[in-house]
Fold this sequence. Notes:
Layout: H1 2-11, H2 14-22, H3 53-94, H4 97-166, H5 175-184, E1 191-193, E2 199-201
Antiparallel strand pairs: 1-2
Amino acid sequence: MASLVAAFSGVFTKPRALALLQYTTVRYRRKPRWLGTAKSKLFRVPERRKQIEEEVEELKRLHNNYRTQMKAVRNFLRDEVEAYKLVSRAGLVLQSPEEEEAEWQEALRRNDEWNQQTAAVREERLAAERAARKEFILERLVLKEQREMSKQEEVEAKVRAEKEQSKTFITRENIDKAIELALVQPTSYNFALDRDGNIHRANNSSTTDNSQTN
């Protein structure tokens, strides 16, 4: 057993197994036609299959019925076409010029009537479209006017607010008064906050402001 395993292990080594896996054969399902007939079948004559007598008679009967029915259909259609041609020719021959003119005038009258009906429907549709478009434009104009009015009100409100704030602005006229007020009431931003929110001023470290900041 060990010798057999050793023999097979020597045959199916890794490079050889890899080569066998990569090797593929190409085979045709049928012989290509360009190779021609095989020599063994070159002079072979296939034997004709014999049919049963009853089957042959039944096939003949069915074929005869089919041919008879198709011939009848063709003859019927041919007669119909010939009859239609005769009727058309007779109508053309028997129709007088006055009748042709009357038929033409009737066709024109009917065409004009159809055109009038189509024009009435078209005018009604166009009128409805114009009314809808006019209403849409009016709505857009009203909305635009409302937006402009609201925008104008916002601008006026901003202008009034700026005018109110301008009273506290420092100008050339009140700059001396503002300087005197700043000297009399100095503002010191040198302070600190503890965890409880108490303010500790730098000028008086012993005192504590118990006011809470928001």
